[in-house]
Amino acid sequence: MPRTLDDALAMLRDEPLTPIAGATDLYVSLNFGTLDATRFMDITKLQELRGIDVRDDLLIIGAGTTYTTIMQSAIVQERLPMLVKAASQIGGVQIQNRGTLGGNIANGSPAGDSLPVLAVADAVLVLRSASVERRVPFTSFYTGYRTSVLRPDELIIAIELPRVEGRQWFRKVGTRAAQAISKLVIAAVRATSPRIAIGSVATTTIRLPRTEAALASGAGIDEAASVLEAEITPIDDLRSSADYRRQVAANLLRRFWSDTA
Fold first, then answer.
1. Which end of the chain is more exposed for a tag (fewer CB within 10 A), N or C?
2. Last residue in a domain, options 134, 161, 188
3. Of 160, 127, 138, which Cα lies nearest the Cα of 58?
4. Do 187 and 143 fall within a single domain?
């Protein structure tokens, strides 16, 4: 349990460790015996990873900031209401009190509820090791299913979000509104150049550039929905079928366009 961020980064540099923040995702794998890691580093108490601020008109959220803190933040409510809505539907109160935004990113599940919001908000992730700090656009972070460009000696320390122009919209579809893994989750922004991102329709959360371009060019919503259905590649799994996800995604696109008209 490092006392400072510098201590944590030095530990990661010197030996292989798996960071734990809220542990709301990682502990599930540990409990089911599907986690290979055996040595962990508890970063829950690192205050350097917590907090919400605005600098140079960038909304900056520490990676260790909990969903509860995000929901209670007047700054986030004003600038990124779709993230507040996503946070309110991640698990129950206990999960919201412990789970962190950085943890949702690091876990990398394509069903992660906050991830489509970060994709359409053009978020940039601040990654740091003991020797260097770098910034990676959220849309370039994942390389495949639960894999990313994050190196073993790095931590996600913050998320930087520019001001979002346009009407924000978020929906989660699951067996329940919260406390359930999403069958499909979508975030969108209606502006001159619309932005749309969906989770649970590919190996990672994805933006939909062809659908965005169709809407921006003035295509009708039915035409745009057809483009969306061709652009996503959902699968059948225990929670839903590919056909269901494709149909619901198209319906949600129509709902987004109607709600933000």
1. C
2. 161
3. 160
4. no
